[in-house]
Specification:
Elements (H helix, E strand, L loop, with lengths): L2 E9 L3 E6 L4 E5 L10 E5 H33 L5 E6 L3 E6 L5 E6 L2 H9 L7 H14 L10 E8 L8 H14 L4 E8 L1 H9 L4 H11 L7 H4 L4 H8 L8 E3 L54 E2 L4 E2 L47
Parallel strand pairs: 8-9
Antiparallel strand pairs: 1-2, 1-4, 2-3, 5-6, 5-8, 6-7, 9-10, 11-12
Helix pairs in contact: 3-4, 5-6, 6-8
Length: 360
């Protein structure tokens, strides 16, 4: 075992400092017999080296532990989901999606949303299917019904992914569901960013409500934020003197054209046909009266889309969409026979389908 000699220079409660013959000062643990200062002693070099190595590895291990803890804290601070989609009906909730666009977490923002989520099973569903189920459960529980304006908002924010929602497709899903239940309403879908979502969270407000408040303020309307947070979208718009159609796509109650040669079906009770209605020019009476297609014919469900230039509703779907037409759709549209040059009839609203039956 290698050793050297040295002179004891200092003694503390735990160590002694020894100046060794090789010119190095060494801190050594106190032995059983404590030498006096100035006494010359033998120093085992191998023992000192082992202690240095032990201290080195212990320091390294402690540093690694702190690095792992720091990495864990950093990882927890990062978004765990790719995208969050907020849905506002009266139930207000958020769906968190993974990179595959599947729902991995659903968070209720009020008691009504808790009721909806208890009745739904959304785990690993694609976004479109999850929205359909949420709408269906909201109808079953009465949150969407014929006695309400049914204002539905959908907003998506990317947390770490780059995927974007198809706004028109989601609006169509809402329209299909409401019209399948013979209900009218209003819908607005919007892609936003992580910053807006975080701002809404800081104010303890849903992202849909936060986006609507910002849009209302762009019209020069001053809002009391504390009061606005607790109010519905309909209340905010009415208080600001703004029309719903300036922000939402109207969803009218559907109408059902009769097929050529088919015996005319009766009008739904909520849409009685006017006895003074007459067919439009170039169309026969047999295909002008509106009624449900009992033989499984084409059912046309009208949806109005927004005009991005004027920010108001118009009566046409985006290019490429042939399933939805305006209630005043001209002849030649799939499921409606007649002269392609016939003039379109006025749009049918929730209580005015007979006006769309034809112009005299």
């Amino acid at each position: 075992m290698s050793e050297t000699k040295g002179i004891v220079m200092k003694i503390t409660d735990q160590i002694m400092v020894v100046m060794c013959d090789d010119g190095k000062f060494r801190n050594l643990p106190l032995p059983v017999y404590v030498p006096a200062i100035g006494e010359r002693i033998i120093v085992a070099l191998s023992q000192s080296k082992r202690k240095r190595l032990s201290s080195y590895w212990m320091s390294t291990a402690v540093a690694c532990i702190f690095m792992l803890i720091g990495f864990g804290i950093w990882q927890q601070a990062q978004p765990q989901y790719d995208q969050v989609v907020a849905i506002e009906i009266n139930p207000s909730l958020e769906l968190f999606l993974n990179a595959q666009g599947q729902v991995v977490k659903a968070k209720p923002l009020n008691a009504d949303a808790e009721n909806v989520l208890r009745a739904a099973s959304l785990d690993k569903l694609r976004l479109n299917d999850a929205i359909k189920q949420i709408l269906a459960k909201s109808i079953d529980l009465g949150y969407i019904n014929r006695n309400k304006n049914n204002m539905i908002m959908i907003a998506a924010a990317n947390l770490k992914g780059r995927a974007a929602i198809n706004e028109a497709a989601l609006e169509d899903i809402v329209a299909e569901t409401l019209q399948a239940n013979n209900m009218a309403g209003f819908v607005h879908a919007e892609q936003t960013d992580k910053g807006s979502y975080e701002q809404a969270r800081k104010r303890k407000i849903s992202i849909n409500k936060w986006l609507l408040i910002q849009q209302i303020q762009q019209y020069g309307v001053s809002l009391n934020m504390d009061n606005a947070v607790t109010k519905s979208a309909e209340y905010l718009l009415e208080g600001a003197g703004l029309r719903k159609e300036q922000f939402f796509v109207p969803i009218p109650i559907p109408f059902y054209p009769a097929k050529d040669g088919q015996k005319l079906a009766e009008q739904p009770e909520e849409q009685p046909a006017s006895p003074t209605d007459s067919p439009s020019q170039g169309q026969s009476e047999s295909n002008q009266t509106l009624g449900p297609d009992d033989d499984g014919g084409t059912v046309l469900n009208p949806v109005q889309s927004r005009n991005p230039e004027s920010n108001t509703a118009n009566h046409s779907r985006p290019a490429g969409s042939s399933q939805w037409i305006d209630a005043a759709g001209s002849s030649g549209t799939p499921g409606v026979s007649g002269d392609a040059n016939a003039s379109p009839a006025p749009a049918a609203g929730p209580s005015g389908a007979s006006a769309a039956a034809g112009q005299s």
